[in-house]
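Intended use. Records like the one below are meant for learning the mapping from a protein sequence to its folded structure. Do not use them to infer anything beyond what is encoded.
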Amino acid sequence: MTVPGCEMSVFEDKVIEPKPYFDSRHFRKRRLEAVVVIQRYWRRWLSWQYCDRLRKARDERLEWERCEEIRKRKEKEARIKKEFERRMKPKTKEDFDLVYAALEKWRVEEISNIEAEMLDEPTRKAALCALLEQETQLIASIGKHKNDADKANRAESIHTLLDKAAAPKRWKAYDGRYTEMDTKYTIRAKELRDIYKSITMKYLTQDERLDVLLTLKHTVKEHDCKLTREIIELIDREADLIMRGVSDTNLEGLRQRIATQFLEYCKNPMFNPEIARYTKVPQDPTTLDTYFCSATNSYLPSTEFSIDCKSKTQGQSRKAIELDNIGRTRRDHSVYRTMLRSIRHNEIKMLDNAKTAFLVQEKDLQYLVDNIWQKMSILSAWEDLSDMEFARWNKREQWSPWNCILVTKDEAIAHLRVDHLAESYGTVFMNKIRHKHTVARIYFSKLPGMSEQLRRRSNKMPGPQELCGKNVLKSR
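Structure written out for the chain above:
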């Protein structure tokens, strides 16, 4: 503003016009709009986070399903590969049962093919005779493989026995480390083991073989008895034949006799005291319970007979049952054996002093699977027994034929997570399970040792004696 004596510039002046009055109501409205904007952005961030978690959970689930599928496929491939190797190179009794089962399956298929061709009677009989001849050759080949496997298993068991006797004493210290100590008995067992491995070693030179025989002779000279004198005589005979230039092929029988005699020397606790801890002590025959086996026509101890829940007598021995299976039925029971082993392993992990799982035998489990549970999972109707196992129906009680459920391995894991069975399964399914458990209780009530287990559960589930009706004639 210019006044006399003072001039002021108006170049930077601004014109300010009054705006509407901004009271507290407008202020609160503006704050509310700002809060709404902040909340919108905040909720959008929360939704992003929630979607990211869902997306991550979905990816993890898909990855887990993919890994599980790969794992199951690898397990199945490994099982098929192992089964193929067991068929091609059988070693144990279970392997040969699998081979005989495959042979029986092949024979049945060939007979069905012959019957389906609608041949005339002479041609049909000729085809059956040819099939019988081929089956005979296959059985002879299997028997040859079995003899070779028995020899290899016998040699392996001998080496395992000598290694156990020669192993040092071993115990765990307070800091977790193991301490080993050799005693005079273990040192003696180690020397005898090394000598036995040396005399059974092949492709030795003449000087090396003579050194081994000399070492063996000095070892057995420490004791004078009939066995040691026979060994020394055989050693002198072989040394003389070696000096005469006899070939190794002609000396195989003599060397086998020396190895057998020296093995008896190693198994004698008088010469090898440490071996007494791993060899069976022969018991007095008069104190053993022996029974007559009509199939093998021999008297055998009670441990050689298997008793199932319907047995009233001792029946046939295990050897007779094995021969009958090879000759006629040719069934592979490895699936039931593996299932029973899995049941007992799971019961041991529960640490609740389970007993019933150890009373059930392989035949009983086979009846339980085939006749009561119809060889399938009750949840998904899966029929591959190699993928199934028995789980506890009520996980708080011990496993038993009347407290079990046959499901797949994945279904068993999910079933054991269920806390309330009545809420998780329907009424129809529960009644179906109760019916199967009742049938199992009636069948297994005759199994020795089951009566005590049945009495414990008599107040929870009706037993066989409670299923009998009332006598109406007497009541009248």
